[in-house]
Amino acid sequence: MLAVLSPGQGSQKPGFLTPWLDLPGAEARLRWWSALAGVDLVHLGTVADADEIKDTARTQPLLVAAALLAAEHLPVYDVPLVAGHSVGELGAAALAGVLPAEAAITLAGVRGREMAAACALEPTGMAAVLGGDPDEVLAAIEAHGLHAANRNGAGQIVAAGALDALDKLAAEPPSRARITRLKVAGAFHTPYMAPAEAALAGVAAGITPTDPRRVLLSNLDGAAVNHGREMVQRLVRQVTAPVRWDLCMRTLADLGVTAVLELPPAGTLAGLVKRELKSTGVPEIVTLNTPDDLPAARELIARHSGLRGHEPVIQFRVVVAPAAGTFEPAADLAEGADLRTGQVIGHVATRQGPVEVTAHDSGLLTEWLAHHDDPVAPGQPLARIGGQV
Length: 389
Hints:
The protein is an alpha+beta fold. 35% of the residues lie in helices and 23% in strands.
């Protein structure tokens, strides 16, 4: 299985979009998206310096635009799974078919402006806590009145909150941990961003999303999200909620991902995946940074989507939990069974009673991803369905 990843804030580099403007229609596309985002994406992606593109109001739409611009030159219809980090979730949601590209760009512009405005309300910041025991790091962050805003795996947790509290954490770091202050405008993914969340919710309410056409993971809990409206709600909530990229990577491992393609500006997420999944088997990784990388990216998609010349293409779809509870698969269904659309394949036992789990597509029950009495969260993958097309 192939996963396409869309990076988040901090991955941008001066001039990283310059080579992409040589492609037909790319500059016109960016100028159209600039009108939607309220920033000059062509200028920001080509001649702007590092200080200009680290401005939250500019960075967020720039990153979403870069990912979607590159994806237009890929066979995305063959991609089975997408995920994004922080604002990168907007790009991932567009690639999954939940949002039109224009809606994702517009929301990124609103999100960036409103988060920048929230940062100006009081002095806050973020710091990466590298190494140490995770439980001790989290306890220290809480003890200083800070928030664990990002849990990126690979021994990295990001603390966020008041500047004086960050100073105290740096002066008293957890055992075997080091603190690196991040050059950001404020405490993203914490309650300090509540005004930005409210503003984004007001705009997002006017969008009519569709359900994902491929597996779409959420930063909220690493689960696959099956309904478009729920994903939009999660995208809004993520402004104040921690980014659990560690759980997204755990899901990549659980689903048996064999290859990862990171969209531009690529490198950060690929590095996290490489370090985090080394114990379970590092997937094949391609970082897409310039048009020169497109042939390798297309070849990776072809090999890991099941394409083999004129042989049948095997597409996998994931059935996810509709509610929290314990999973009970249908007693008469074994791996390899033929399923029809709408067939009940089990239920989730909740406090309010059983909730049926149905197959959204026909095909073979390729693999159970959850088993009898397993606790499950909403959106958690339960079974994989495969079929030839």
